[in-house]
Amino acid sequence: MSHFQLALLLGMTVALGPLALDAYLPAFPSIADSLGIAHSEVGLTLSAYVATLGLAQLVGGPLSDRYGRRPILVGGLAIFAGAAVMVSLADSLSNMVLWRVIQGVGGAFCAVSVPAIVRDQVGGQEAARLFGLIGLIMFIAPAAAPSMGALMLALGDWHSIFLVLAGYAVFLVFALNVALFPKLQPRPPATTPVRTLVTNYLLVLRHRTTMRFVGIQVLCFSTMLLFITHSSFIYQEWFGLSNGMFAILFASNIALMAILNLINRPLLRRFSSVVLLRVQVAMQFAALVALVAVVLLEGPFWLVAACIIAAIGCQGGIIPNNMANALEYFPHLGGTAAALMGASQFTIAGGISALSSMFGGDALLPIVASMLACSAGAVLLAAGAPGAVDREMATA
């Protein structure tokens, strides 16, 4: 199977997560009105999904190492589809949160399988390039998601958004069984006793270099999730923009992510992924410093939007470089390592997002200051990340 074919199918699969996060963002006001709740409370459905998406990976990753990628991935898609249908039928906030939690379980089994499949097939700089190609394909989903949500709202109501998500998950089941799994290089059958699946996490947790990259992933993702959680508030309430303009600005973030992702691929032939990671984390930090300054000075809307787009766009280079480095040291425990990274990323970021919704979701400055604080931590971790020269020592 060519890298493009593999990236296309895996990119379509991992896109399920951004679709479930972003597609219903324009519908937040409609959901709030339909359920009779405050706009900020709708954010709890997002935080619940994200937190579960992280925690459930701790189960899905080891099971994927033990029983194979296929049953875990297909099972996750089935759970996701069924829960999406039930979310569309929810008539209260508590019901919606419950089914979003179950949907998060299915999404977690999908999310943890994709990087594990990549690590099964390739490693090193080649893995960084493949992650970059997957990311480039995946960017179509979050770019199109708010527009799709806005279209569904124009044609019907917010319930139809989740029915479309369910249909997409069902489509992926058929596509992967026909075009992906029969063509993958077979993995050696796992003989690890089930009781050791949990203890394998200790191997990853004790690896200081890997945990440094996990920390970078958590903090950079938290920066992005803070924006995603409050994007409707920032653009639709704070600045009073329409659904259409919100979708355009959201797509602009993804467009810059795609551009930086494209630039990153040829750069990997000249520079190590760690060096590129340091530069891109620093660029994100600089954009967020500018954003906080603009907000403090009550600058114009277009300048706020430009800083946000610059900061979030940096994820296009950060994600593939960081994931390749985090998984490099565990070729035989790809599912476990990916699960720990995904669980940490989504659970901690989900917690930060939930706290920001409860205590700082009604003003712009606390939101952007929180984004800056997360980015500052990522800069510190990236500065000490080992480069190619240090890798052999780091694995010793």
Task: Outline the structure in words.
This protein is mainly alpha-helical and 396 residues long. The chain has one domain: MFS general substrate transporter like domains (Growth Hormone, Chain: A). 82% of the residues lie in helices and 0% in strands. The protein is built from 19 helices and no strands. The longest helix has 31 residues, at 208-238. This is Bcr/CflA family efflux transporter. It is a multi-pass membrane protein. InterPro entries: Efflux_drug-R_Bcr/CmlA, MFS, MFS_dom, MFS_trans_sf, Sugar_transporter_CS.
CATH superfamily: MFS general substrate transporter like domains
The arrangement of helices and strands along the chain is HHHHHHHHHHHHHHHHHHH
CATH topology: Growth Hormone, Chain: A
Strand percentage: under 5%
C-alpha Rg, in Å? Answer: 20 Å
Shape descriptor reads: globular
Mean pLDDT: 84
In terms of quaternary structure, the protein is single chain
GO molecular function: xenobiotic transmembrane transporter activity
Subcellular location: Cell inner membrane; Cell membrane
Protein name: Bcr/CflA family efflux transporter
Domain Major facilitator superfamily (MFS) profile: 1-396
Short description:
The protein is mostly helical and 396 residues long.
Which terms would index this structure?
396 residues; mainly alpha; Growth Hormone, Chain: A; 0% strand; globular
